[in-house]
User: What shape does this take?
Amino acid sequence: WQDVGRTASGRRRPIMMNQVGIQCRHCQNVPVKNRQKGAIYYPAKLTGIYQAAQNMGVMHIRKLCMHVDEDTINRLGTSE
Assistant: This one.
């Protein structure tokens, strides 16, 4: 609910109440302005959740998030 009405870079529409999204569990308590790119995804359609999770895993968690421990990154593997 905290993201309702916000717009993000690359979004044309604000986030709506009950819109499904995913968020990085490692930096969820970091203020929005201090999070790295890709910490939260709100796809326009529910079918976009899978792709959003893939994007988050490849880019945000493996390369950008400063709050993910090395063990987690290693368990995700190195394939891209």
DSSP finds two helices and two strands in the chain. The CA atoms of residues 6 and 14 lie 5 Å apart. Helices lie at 49-64, 70-76.
